[in-house]
Amino acid sequence: MSAKMPGPESNAGVVLVVDDDLGSLNMLCDALTTEGYSVLVARDAAEALQRFEMTLPDAVLLDAIMPNMNGFDLCQHIKQEPTWAHVPVIFMTGLSETEQIVHAFSCGGVDYVVKPIKIPEVLVRVAAHIRNANAARLARQAVDIAGMGIVLLDRQQRISWCSPRADHFLKNAFPCTGEADASATWLRNDTSGYATKPLPGGRAIQAQRIGQAEFGETMFLIREVGAQAPSDAMRLPDAVLTPRETEVLSWLAKGKTNRDIADILGMSPRTVNKHLEHIFVKLGVETRAAAAALASRMHYSD
Q1: Class of domain 235-302
Q2: Residue 90 backbone class (left: φ over 0; alpha: ψ -120 to 50; beta: rest)
Q3: Euclidean distance between CA atoms 152 and 161, whole angstroms
């Protein structure tokens, strides 16, 4: 069965439907296409992975029971790939026991629909999860625009998600090492809060531990710097600023307003003002311009 692609006016997103039941595929494809989605289909896990290699969907509707690799294992596989991990996976299955539902969420699913499915309910859930995933993606990729990337380590200290720029940095730093989690090992073994990995040509990547994120994850900011930049950058600000103050100062140096900084970092403008007050005192300056100039000299605007 081929994918159903609506006309160029469609902008609702791309949904991958994975189900070995032809009747369910046809019903879901018709409903999603009517709502303006571009629809990709797969009859098993192998075809689903091929679709991921072809294009990155905005959401996945996934049957749990399929031949060969089941839906639970497929979801785990998707979530282990950093560039795919942000895609929301919605399980749809006849399995309704609590243990099976818990297993679906532990594998990385964001929702669970019990068959026989109700099309209006599925459409509402798909729209909500795509909207939430897009908001999270845009917030994280805002850091990429500034020349940095984000990496998240889960509770097991494995990479659970990284932004495209961070993925690029890590692949340059750990090419073909033979150790699948070499970059995760590098991050989790650092105790200083700043891990530095030399690159060819006198450059290096620097990972700054920001703190805890949701679901027990640890967040790192990743950027590429000059050979001497890590020590230069840390000479003054990092001796006195908290990680949160460092983030605020970094965005201030890039010309962001207090409201912009609040939106990017997920805090209120009032909290940004409080951080700036502390930053001014610690850096010995009185104005935003002076703080921004100092931050730029200390490589906080790279």
Answers
A1: mainly alpha
A2: beta
A3: 5
Under CATH, which architecture does the 146-228 domain have? 2-Layer Sandwich (3.30)
Question: How far, in Å, CA of 155 to CA of 19, rounded?
Answer: 31
Question: Counting every residue, how long is the chain?
Answer: 302
Classify strands 38-42 and 59-62 as parallel, antiparallel or unpaired. unpaired
In the predicted model, residues of the chain with pLDDT beneath 50 are 1-10, 178, 227-239, 300-302
Q: What is the pLDDT of residue 4?
A: 45
pTM beyond 0.85, yes or no: no
CA distances from 8 to 5, 11, 29, 122, 233 (A): 9, 8, 17, 24, 47
CATH fold, domain 14-138, is Rossmann fold (3.40.50)
Distances (CA, A) of 142 to 148, 212, 221: 9, 19, 12
